């Protein structure tokens, strides 16, 4: 079974998270499959744009707390997990094709980060996003320490990440973090229509435009990815984080 799939519909590749029974929570196997699916979509000759979505009731509920012990088992497993998370961002942001997010339900932690890594986002009106990292003793990844202040400013970034308050689709639209908000039933068709429109643009021009944006962002994002990875590895190894994860996992089972 694959936990992320790549399918082709005309000029559009669709990358779908396929772990709906866990609200597409991030596992090691999901990361491996997602990187492969994104890289396949970016290199597919017939593809002119990419839609990124999640199967089931949510886009992505963030890191799977059930796998924390496995992820944090050793410095090597921690480093491997953090590197894979950052490789998802590289596959999304540094590939030549525009990525359109079709995001619904929960987009939490890493799921929120992936929303922010998209080039455009169609949000369902059911969308709820927040960063739980500071409460859990984790650290944000995905280049968010650079991307989010650029989008919303320093103080709002502090508020979103440190407080971790829930944001609705309307909140995110007001912040300029999603492009369109539609009823959930219309989300995927709207994203596919937007991706099809993007696909009619010059492939060379759009790839060069994305590369031009990345040429300014790239060095800063790579620096952010490196700093985040170091901080995330330290947080994974911190006993306080293990205690917080255990408490959160216990709370969710009540």
Structure at a glance:
The chain is of the alpha/beta class and 254 residues long.
Q: If you had to describe this structure to a student in words, what would you say it looks like?
A:
It contains eleven helices and nine strands. By secondary structure, the chain is of the alpha/beta class. The chain has a six-stranded mixed β-sheet, sandwiched between helices. Helix 1 links the parallel strand 2 and strand 3 (49-54). The two termini are 30 Å apart. The mean pLDDT is 95.
Oligomerization category of the chains in this entry: single chain
Q: Would you tell me the overall average pLDDT?
A: 95
Helical proportion, percent range:
55-70%
| SSE class | alpha/beta
Distance between the termini: 30 Å
Largest sheet: 6 strands, mixed
H/E topology pattern: EEHEHHEEHEEHHHEHEHHH
Q: Compute the gyration radius: what is it?
A: 17 Å
The share of residues in extended strands comes to 15-25%
What's the overall geometry? globular
């Amino acid at each position: 079974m694959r936990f992320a799939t790549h399918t082709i519909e005309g000029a559009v590749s669709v990358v779908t998270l396929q772990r709906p029974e866990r609200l597409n929570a991030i596992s090691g196997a999901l990361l491996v499959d997602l990187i492969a699916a994104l890289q396949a979509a970016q290199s597919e000759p017939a593809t002119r744009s990419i839609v990124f979505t999640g199967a089931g009731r949510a886009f992505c509920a963030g890191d799977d707390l059930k796998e924390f012990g496995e992820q944090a088992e050793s410095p090597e497993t921690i480093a491997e997990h953090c590197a894979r998370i950052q490789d998802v961002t590289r596959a999304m942001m540094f590939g030549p094709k525009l990525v359109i997010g079709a995001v619904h339900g929960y987009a939490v932690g890493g799921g929120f980060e992936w929303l922010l890594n998209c080039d455009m986002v169609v949000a369902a009106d059911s969308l709820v996003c927040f960063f739980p990292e500071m409460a859990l003793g984790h650290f944000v990844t995905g280049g968010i320490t650079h991307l989010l202040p650029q989008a919303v400013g320093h103080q709002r970034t502090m508020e979103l990440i440190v407080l971790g308050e829930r944001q609705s689709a309307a909140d995110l639209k007001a912040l300029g973090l999603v492009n369109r908000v539609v009823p959930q039933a219309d989300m995927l068709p709207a994203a596919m229509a937007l991706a099809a429109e993007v696909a009619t643009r010059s492939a060379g021009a759009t790839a060069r435009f994305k590369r031009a944006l990345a040429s300014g962002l790239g060095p800063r994002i790579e620096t952010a990815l490196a700093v985040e990875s170091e901080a995330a590895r330290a947080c994974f190894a911190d006993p306080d984080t293990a205690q917080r994860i255990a408490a959160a996992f216990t709370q969710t089972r009540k």
